[in-house]
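Usage

Read records sequentially. Each one opens with the input sequence:
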Amino acid sequence: MREKLLKFINRCLRTQKPDLHSFVIEIECGKAFVSCLCGEVAITSFVYDVDGHEIREQFNGSASEAADYLIRNGAKWETIEQ
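and closes with the structure output:
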């Protein structure tokens, strides 16, 4: 799955269409909003704890680091929304 995710992120970084520079993917207990611009990937993830409280986390890094981050957080490939 890492290779598919990395290929998808790299395609988002290279695209010339402004509406294709971001996507949403489900992660364990929440969602991650991924933005790919200027050679960097920014991820804002929203997860919910056992009490239902929202926890927001920010991540910035390369395509490879972003793919690893998403996998560590339980990304589900089939849930990508662009």
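Summary fields computed downstream for this record:
- The beta strands are 22-27, 30-37, 40-48, 54-61.
- The chain has one domain: 2-79.
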